[in-house]
Specification:
heterodimer, A: mainly alpha, Arc Repressor Mutant, subunit A, 2 domains, 10 helices, B: mainly alpha, rod-shaped
Amino acid sequence: MNNNERWLVEESRKGNVEAFEELIKDYKKTAYNIALRIMRNVEDAEDASQEALIKIFKNISSFNMESTFKVWMYRIIVNTCIDFKRRKNISTVSIDETMDLGSGREVQREISDESYNPDALIERNYNTQLVNDAINALEDDFKTIIILRDIKGFTYDEISQILSCNLGTVKSRLSRARKRLKELLENEMKVQG
Amino acid sequence: MKCNEISDKLSLYIDNELSHEEMQQVEEHLLSCEKCQKILDEYKNLISVLRNLPEEEPPVGYCKRLHEKLLESSPQSKTKKAASKIKSLNRNKLLKYGSLAAALVLVFIAANINNIGRMGMKAKNESYDMATTESPAEYYGAGAPAPEAPQAKPPVMTEEAAEMGYDGDNKGA
């Protein structure tokens, strides 16, 4: 944590709104985008991300200066968004149920390990909308770890701190999440022919 | 190592999160297994797509709305609000009690003015009475016995006069 960030944290602790806004300047957009990925709609993404940022502002006194502000902040953002989603009773996807990829396209989620079609996948460019739909169809735990690692580029260590779990869990969960996402995309591509 | 085992390690292999020994095992396998090499390429392709997904801009007015919420939740603004509440409360009290005090002063002044007026009236009445009631009969009523007419009082020698040897009637005697 550099001196400027430390000073901004100190000022934010005194209730200085402008200092806090400066502190979160570079993280605000990412916070919103994480919320958007989890919530799936603009209104809820704004409400959830702002609720998280207010929570960070109110609880900044409990932040330990020795740890990384970014990691501490994103932990609150991820947890707040997941809580927000539960509170609003937005449906979460469970394993083995049919998933809707939009536009009336529906595919069975359960796919065997031997159902890969590598040739089909590698030769096609993924359509962004298709990837977004597949991410949305993931279970929350898988989705969160894909967002943090592959979309936002956090390190394994940072993810373990954000999700409050050990490194082994991060490794196994990320491997399974990527595998699931790849399966969803392959299956969808099969459906599309 | 079988393809399934290798496949499960590919995600960590991409991120360089395997042990040195495991890395070597995977690399050796990839050299001889086209299928696993293709799976590896698919993972790389997928991760590259995910890394390049465009970020959405927050909606217009997002920062302004956040700023307002932050101001509302700021302890500084709460202190200011509390201070202004106390000020306004004090101002109200001041107005209330001040008005009451002013009203009391006015009542007091009004009462005094009334009294002064009455006193003036009384004095006026008294002089009027003295001027008009020449006959005691008129004052006390016709049937009432008229008080005795004031008689000339004998001169009273004051102590001062006595001291000065004033003798009154006996002057020059």
